[in-house]
Amino acid sequence: MNYTITNAHKLYCNKEKFPTSCSFTKSQSFFWKKGIQSFMLKQIKKSYAKKFWRLFVDTGTHFVMGVALFGMAMTDPAISATPAMSTAVFIATVVGSEIPDVDTVLKLKNNADYIRHHRGLTHSLPALFAWPLLIVLGLYPFFPEIDLMRLWLWSFLAVFLHVFVDIFNAYGTQALRPFSNRWIALGWINTFDPFIFTMILSSIILWAIGYNAEKIFPVLFFLLFGYYLYRYFLHKKVYRMVLERIPQADKVIIAPTYYFFQWRVAVITDKKYFVVRAFRDHIKILDEYHRIPLPDHPIMKAAQKDKNIAAFLSFSPVYRWEITENEDFIEVQFTDLRYRSRGHYPFVAVVILDHHLQILSSYTGWIYSKEKLRKKLQVLPD
Questions:
Q1: What distance in Å separates the CA atoms of residue 32 and residue 11, rounded to the nearest whole number?
Q2: What pTM does this model have?
Q3: Phi, psi angle pair for 299, to nearest 5°
């Protein structure tokens, strides 16, 4: 007896190539279903693991830094001697270390708004003072007897430290808003630096098992200062090596990686873009592209009206573009050249237009396969 094939079966069923594969006995159908269910469960777990890792990367270092700042605050007798004060300061330093990234919720809306606004207004100069005030106002009803000025000071230090630290990675912030919308991204430190995280976490553990906070945390922040300084000199060395190799460079964009001595580099010259990898004392040019300005063409003008494309162009300083005209649609793709990984450029923006230049679909974000891009752009054929 044969049974109806489920949608999951159809993923693996091709009547033209394998006619018999579309027919299952009862026992075969049972094992197929179990196999597919197991496969789908693994994919779901893998997806959640990736989301958890991204959340950890985004918030992990800021969280432990907030706890370390609380450890530093506990060296003040006015805080450590009062349970209510120490509790309030703990909450303030941890929340203050995380709250500038509250704009991460924009991911739930769409990538375009997230790219445009993440680390923007929430990391601005007015926010440096507004966030501590909101934290104090939120805690005051629960701790009315505490020293509000001290609480505001430690809240401010937590927020300031968050914004200040973000300046040193490749993503950067708009920390000078409202006076300037320019992104400040020094590119010395990776978004998640395992050395920084380990140093801070180790200090917290030592404090938790009884070591003196007055000795641990000043030493920690001194070591962190030295580490940032060391990364600055490594960054400067890479910059010099790139200029020696490509002396005609107009702009050099350097981004750290998870590997301590490896850097991603994008170089802009008058006529070309170069994609470079730097490792220790070696420079390797991986790709080079002609620098072609955006054409004054109706297709490109229509593409730039799309919010995903506009967000990408506002964020990416170095990219290549491509227009592909098909029988049923026109595809315009932009590829950021800063994030080459394993021969692939994952950060893209794509818009699909009909031949009347009406937008059918679009997407911007991190894509690691054409299949995933097709799912994001639902009008694309398989």
A1: 11
A2: 0.79
A3: -65, -45
Token couple for 338: 């800063």
Alpha carbons 269 and 277: distance in angstroms, whole number:
17
- The alpha carbon of residue 1 and the mean position of all alpha carbons in its chain are separated, in whole angstroms, by 53
As to burial, measured by CB atoms within 10 angstroms (0-12 exposed, 13-18 middle, 19+ buried), residue 112 is: buried
Bridge partners (DSSP) listed for residue 273 = 268, 289
- Among 174, 179, 150, 340, CA closest to 253: 340
Residue 280: both structure tokens together: 């220790």
Average pLDDT for 12-27: 40
194-206 mean pLDDT: 95
Helix axes 26-73, 213-245, angle to 10 degrees: 110
Q: How many angstroms from the chain centroid is the CA of residue 79?
A: 35
Instruction: Give CA–CA dist 274/323, Å, rounded.
Output: 21
Contact of 58 with 104, CB cutoff 8 Å: yes
Residue range 316-353, pLDDT digits in tens: 999 999 999 988 899 999 999 999 988 889 999 999 99
Laid out side by side, the sheet with 319-325 consists of 319-325, 330-336, 347-353, 359-366
Secondary structure of residue 241 in the 3-state scheme: helix
Taking alpha carbons only, the member of 54, 363, 359 closest to residue 373 is 363
Distance CA 322, CA 290 (A): 12
In 3D space, the residue among 163, 176, 378, 338 whose CA is nearest the CA of residue 256 turns out to be 338
Strand partners, 331: 324, 352
Those residues with Cβ within 8 angstroms of residue 259's Cβ, 6 or more apart along the chain or in another chain = 279
Spell out the SS3 assignment of 303-336: HHCCHHHHHHHHHCCCEEEEEEECCCCEEEEEEE
Q: What's the rounded Cα separation, in Å, for the pair 263 and 279?
A: 6
Q: In 3-state terms, the chain is what percent helix, strand and coil (to 5)? A: 55, 15, 30
Mode of pairing for the β-strands spanning 347-353 and 359-366 = antiparallel
3-state secondary structure of 358: coil
